[in-house]
Amino acid sequence: MDKQKYITLILILGSLTALGPFSIDMYLPGFKAIALDLHTTVNKVSLSLSSYFIGISAGQLLYGPLLDRFGRKKPLYIGLAVYILASAGCAVTTNIDAFIALRFIQAVGSCAAAVASMAMVRDLFPVQDSPKVFSLLMLVVGLSPMLAPTIGGYVIAGFGWHTIFIILALMGFAVLMASRFGLPNTYKADPSISLKPKPIIANFITVLSHPQFYTYALSGAVAFSGLFTYVAGSPLVFMDIFKVSETGYGWIFAFMSVSFIGTSQLNSVLLKRYKSEQLVYIGLTLQCVISLAFLVAAINNWLGLYETIGMLFLYLGCLGLTNPNTAGLSLAPFSKNAGSASALLGAMQLGLGAIASMIVGIFVKESMVPMVVIMAGSTIIALLILLTGRRNIKVLAESSDGDSVVMH
Q1: pTM of the model as a whole
Q2: How far is Cα 398 from Cα 408, in angstroms, rounded to an integer?
Q3: Which NCBIfam families does the UniProt entry name for this protein (predicted)?
Q4: Is the pLDDT of residue 94 over 50?
Q5: pLDDT in the model for residue 160
């Protein structure tokens, strides 16, 4: 593959992956404006974030089998069309409940892009290159939380929050065109894959029962729920508790993204000397230490605005190190079922993210402590899952070696 084609593929796959983060991050500075305009509370508006996470999580499981059955492009086009229409609906709604429902539909559309991009990485690149490719996608994706809230803050200040969703609809159309003309057909339709519930469920169970998948997918998803906790809690923490302006919040959010992007790119360098398995363990261990220190400081009320920014910056840096490696390791055992494996991985990440964001919306009001409790708890659980699961992978590997000896 020549360099220009490689860069083009990374940019298009990155734009597919970035559509979801833009849809999440760009409207965050508008929570107060939306609440005022739709005659509701900021906490009720935050439920639109939870409904988005639920929609994108459920949609993952829908698109996985479709991508394996019909190829990558047709389901992708349908999903993007749904996304465009739902975004336009969000722009014109005048009711908070309708807004929350439209965000769910918008998410179901956008997750076609997320699942397709992950499956195409498995189609287009060798298994050993997957963590590196995912790191490059993190660079493209990482620009979205840098740019989206900052742009969103200025757009809302100048043109109102409705304009955000018009922009998102136009972005969806641009991504659709780029996919249509810039992506190859990476996977032929496989009529042998059934779309009946029983075979689909059996296929998901097969993927989920693989020790390497459930170890790295589940530990990565639980750890990554800390990011969704931060995304859901940050408007309340910074704008309600610390009284930061909409544009100021956008700049803080952008600064935080530097940490996630920086470590995801550092990961590409570290992979030349260390294995992905080692980096996941190092990243989760550091994340545990940082989140526990963050929790102690939050409980004792030692944190002002700048200290809070600093602790979150360090925490997010750990996620940038672990996430590309857990994704690559989770999908490595699969070729035929890459679409289903990608969907299951995304559903786990976003389902846990939905739960975390809903808890944040309920409990984070006058203190950041509930947010930090969720972040610390999820990290500790993720590390325990990793340590337990790695033993099962080792046993499976030793068993496979033993079988091969007997055969020979």
Answers
A1: 0.74
A2: 16
A3: efflux_Bcr_CflA
A4: yes
A5: 93
